[in-house]
Amino acid sequence: VDEEKAVQFDVGGTRWKCDLETYAVTKVGPAQQRRGRGRDRMSMWIRGPEPQASSDDAKLSPDKQWEAFIRNYNVWLRSKDKEKEYPLSNDGSEGDYYTYRSITWSPDSKKIAAYRLRRGHHRTIHYVESSPRDQLQPRHWKMEYAKPGDALDIDQPVLFLVSEKKQIQIDNALFQNPYDLSSLEWRKDSNSFTFEYNARGHQVYRIIEVDSETGTTRALINEETKTFFSYSGKKYRHDIADGKEIIWMSERDGWNHLYLYDGATGKVTNQITRGRWVVRNVQKIDEDSRQVFFSASGMEPGQDPYFVHHYRINFDGTGLTSKTG
Description:
This protein is mostly beta strands. Strands 8, 9, 10, 13 and 14 form a five-stranded antiparallel beta sheet that branches. Helices cover 0% and strands 46% of the residues. It is globular and about 70 Å long. The chain has no helices and 27 strands.
């Protein structure tokens, strides 16, 4: 925050701010409710922010000429000198509203991408903690826990052309049934932005690219499985040269391996690693030498298949070398 001169964070029910020059910590106010689908003891997790009629903060454009903020559930712009302001959207409402933290400026300051959020059903379950560590008496706490069939929050990405004051709706045909959409990320050339789509049921996972002039979408990477895509434990993505190439991890051949994609066509250039063994982790991508440093197990004959070795391999799948045991 504060043009990257400070960091805000939550502790318990309070939000704090740390100045990065003096490291002085000041209290800001109540903590913001967090986005996620998990368990947080003594508090409630929520799958999206509460309806936000307005935002006290504004996101400054990279050229430092404009600020984007939320007013009446919509995205607004104002000049840095506060002399001009106008709305970019008019379709936000209490039940279907734009979220401040999703507002993302393009590097050239000419475009904005943001999510409009339609709230789903937020089911709450209750627990009694019989033996808390910090007190003798039992404690009641609650959390959100969606059940099969519950309506989830739906994020809809929207594109704005700043100088034209134009709003472009994005076709959701490639991400119709989301469990979750990732943050919006602009390419450095501002020609497009990407996000990741995790379908409800976790059998479809896609990297979606949106053209910043037309709003048209395409799937750069498409994972479809009859079983389960391990988005929480085995997903890996590394964009090379602003997305001209992508290194991607997949179990599509039955073993966990790395693939090199052509970012322009969305086609697999080649499979980097292959065999009846699994990649465990990627430690480093050396784009200059076009090599991947990774850990794997099950490759060495006669060894426990869970014993991890470290390897190096070229992007084209050649030159596999063992580094350490």
